[in-house]
Design brief:
Among the domains are: 1-85, no CATH class; 89-324, no CATH class. The relative contact order is 0.14. The longest helix is centred in the last third of the chain and has 29 residues, at 444-472. It is built from 22 helices and no strands. It is an all-alpha fold. The chain has helices spanning 6-21, 30-47, 53-67, 75-82, 89-107, 109-121, 125-139, 146-164, 179-196, 203-213, 220-245, 254-267, 272-294, 298-311, 317-322, 324-345, 348-360, 365-378, 386-403, 408-421, 433-437, 444-472. Helix 6 (109-121) packs antiparallel against helix 7 (125-139) and helix 10 packs parallel to helix 16 (324-345). Helices cover 74% and strands 0% of the residues.
């Protein structure tokens, strides 16, 4: 795949120019409207794959600085503001967490955890689904790249299990033996664990940042506490529901436990670096959970974890430098957060919120809430990136909802959770989707049809049962 698709780049440029030169609506600052043109053009470029997210972000930063939309008439301040988000603590939380995640892969601890669960639960295909899911759940808090977690740790193990029971990618008639079920199950479990933790996927801290811009404070613990009940119910329900609506032909998988036992024997005793990685993991979890009590924020905790791994030589500086996914995320994350936050500061998000509020008149928040959730959730069919979806719609819909009276924390968290679970809809809807879909065990028709069914299941669990839980804990 070429780095630049010039045809799509021209479409992106034309779209941005058109927005730029449209009449500025009454009540909107010209610089806010022009920044919106740059922002929407960047999002469209990402959706159309005109270039990589990093390249599109560099173009956006350069355009913001050159146009002076953030500081008219002051070139020096303009470039400083364009680069301002590179110092944001939320950006570094997600970046450093990527480095920490490298420790799980480098030491082999992630694979060991997965095989341990398979050895316990892998006597049936359903148990195997639960075992892989539990491994993902354990790894999720400290591995914010769900692509690295799902594609780098869970997927290779899942595929080897499928091959071991006769599901061969090149032989379509064998896919339903076990491979198809495990593929959809592992992918959807990955989405659930992504939604359960603030550090479960890269787009979650972006939601936290946009919510903070509107005065809504979400901590690591408050996110996890709100997600724990709908998350656990989803983890229990999804493997069983898929087992019924997309059943594997093979029910008994005793060989999986034997295979896991053999793999663990090959790995040998737990190494020094694995013990150190496990220690770092528990320290991170403890400080993230008790951060509010000890006045240690999540980013400081991430720095503590990284420093521990560097000093103990679990990771080297070469490992940190070579973690391309982390540096890539820091770049595009910074650009999108910079523009999203600036749109709010320039008054565009409040203007849009008040405009929508005036249009929908006296609608009660209990009616507006499900409408906003459904629009946000099912519009994901249009997006090939959860990050692009969150960047383009989260802040705007949150502002609209708060303006019509929806309890701010309720809406902020609900939209945040959707950022994980709406990935079930398509085979391109989230980072790990291309990896799992690339196994060829599941065709597009089956992926979309089962995904739509699961989308309804997720909404019932998260917005229905979850809504009752949130009432109990005082979120609204």
């Amino acid at each position: 795949m070429q780095e630049i698709n010039y045809k799509m780049m021209l479409v992106t440029l034309a779209f941005g120019v058109i927005i730029w030169f449209l009449p500025v609506p009454e009540g909107v600052k010209p610089e806010a409207w022009h920044l919106l043109a740059i922002f929407l053009g960047t999002i469209l470029g990402i959706i159309l794959k005109a270039a990589s997210m990093g390249t599109m972000s560099m173009i956006a930063i350069a355009t913001v600085a050159l146009s002076g939309v953030l500081a008219p008439g002051d070139p020096g301040k303009s470039i400083s503001l364009a680069l301002s988000s590179f110092g944001d603590k939320v950006i570094w939380l997600i970046g450093i967490s990527f480095f920490i995640a490298r420790g799980f892969i480098k030491t082999g601890l992630g694979s060991r955890i997965a095989y341990l669960f398979i050895r316990v639960f892998g006597r049936s295909s359903l148990g195997l689904g639960y075992g892989l899911g539990l491994a993902d759940l354990v790894l999720a808090p400290a591995i914010p790249s769900n692509t690295a977690r799902g594609g780098g740790i869970i997927y290779p193990i899942m595929k080897s299990m499928a091959l071991n029971f006769g599901s061969v990618p090149e032989q379509p008639e064998t896919h339903r033996k076990l491979g198809a079920y495990l593929t959809l199950n592992s992918y959807n479990i990955n989405l659930i664990t992504s939604a359960m933790f603030l550090t479960g996927t890269a787009s979650n801290p972006m939601c936290q940042k946009f919510a903070a811009d509107l005065g809504i404070h979400i901590s690591w613990m408050s996110w996890m506490w709100a997600a724990i009940v709908p998350g656990i119910i989803s983890l229990i329900a999804v493997p069983y529901i898929l087992y019924k609506i997309y059943p594997p032909e093979i029910k008994s998988t005793n060989g999986a436990t034997k295979m896991a036992t053999e793999k663990l024997k090959e790995m040998g005793a737990v190494t020094r670096n694995e013990w150190l990685m496990l220690t770092a993991f528990f320290v991170l979890l403890f400080l993230w959970i008790t951060g509010d009590l000890f006045k240690i924020d999540a980013t400081t905790t991430a720095f503590i974890g990284l420093v521990f791994l560097l000093i103990s030589r679990v990771l080297t500086w070469e490992d940190v430098k070579s973690e391309k996914g982390a540096w890539d995320t820091i770049v595009w994350f910074s650009a999108l957060v910079m523009m999203g936050s600036a749109l709010n500061q320039l008054g565009l998000i409040p203007w849009f919120s008040n405009l929508v509020k005036a249009k929908i008149g006296g609608m009660s928040w209990t009616m507006a809430f499900p409408i906003i959730i459904l629009v946000y959730y099912y519009s994901h069919y249009l997006f090939a990136s959860a990050t692009a979806h969150v960047a383009s719609m989260y802040a705007a819909l949150l502002g609209v909802g708060v303006a019509v009276g929806i309890p701010p924390m309720l809406l902020a968290l609900s939209l945040g959770f959707c950022g994980g679970i709406f990935g079930t809809l398509t085979h391109y809807g989230h980072g790990p989707a291309p990896v799992f879909f690339g196994s060829t065990f599941v065709d597009v028709k089956d992926w979309w049809s089962r995904g739509f069914i699961l989308s309804i299941v997720f909404l019932i669990i998260w917005m229905g049962i979850g809504g009752l839980w949130w009432k109990v804990i005082g979120i609204y």
